[in-house]
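Agenda item 2: flavin mononucleotide complex prediction
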Amino acid sequence: MGRYEKERNFLKSNFLEFKKIKTDKMKGVPKPPIVKPYHMDATMIDLPQVSEEVVTNSNIYKCMKDRRSTRFYSQDSLSLAELSYLLWATQGITCTNKAGLTLRTVPCSGATHSFETYLFITRVEGLQEGVYRYLPIEHKLLFMFELREMDQRIDDITLEQPFVPNFAKKAAVVFAWSTTPYRSEWKYDISAHKKILIDIGHVCQNLYLASESLGAGACAIGIYDQKLIDEILQLDGEEEFVLYLAAVGKKKN
Ligand SMILES: Cc1cc2nc3c(=O)[nH]c(=O)nc-3n(C[C@H](O)[C@H](O)[C@H](O)COP(=O)(O)O)c2cc1C
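Presented output:
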């Protein structure tokens, strides 16, 4: 018994075991909502229609070649049109299939899209500093709350950064993706969890490439305080919890 056995097994396919299971979907359990519900009186912000006009480098070859994890940012703000594009690139809905599933700019196992996108916004033109959530169906932002001393809180969340300490708080925006695992478990049961992790990788890679195409830079963040960020975002830590973060800002010249 190696001490990594459990974690290594998690990385493997358990399809044959899964095939023996009657999933909640097969049992006729109602499908969970595809996005987290929200109060009708929530403050919503319209996002500009996504347009190629924000893209300064549309050469995919160059975007892939030049992309780097970027941890130093200029003081420039992102425009709302640029943020709109980044949100579309990471979770935007491009069509709905016959089964009513949303198909997006990112691939996802069984189109289960178990993620919500939360944003710690510091520098986006026209938006007050604070915490927001992206609503992919409406392509809008939901303003959640102002966070006092947000830069310090981002620092506390992204603790002990090994390469550039405290870089995340200097970003224009910090993306925090949560998962609601049941959206995938309903369909994939014990196979859901490995898929969720693969799915989020696609999301973050699109953020990297889309940022590059804007003259901005992104950096994935896997080192974070789970309990603290779940508390700040008011997630229960079981049915929904943060999975991954990424900081984005305009590059320094
Ligand atoms: C899953 C994952 C987690 C990461 N977590 C962090 C992090 O917490 N802090 C950080 O500075 N960089 C983080 N990175 C960025 C990597 O350090 C970076 O991708 C790697 O050093 C290679 O550099 P490149 O992205 O410029 O090619 C993470 C990347 C991935 C894919």
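Discussion summary: The two ends are 52 Å apart (CA to CA).
Owner for follow-up: CH.
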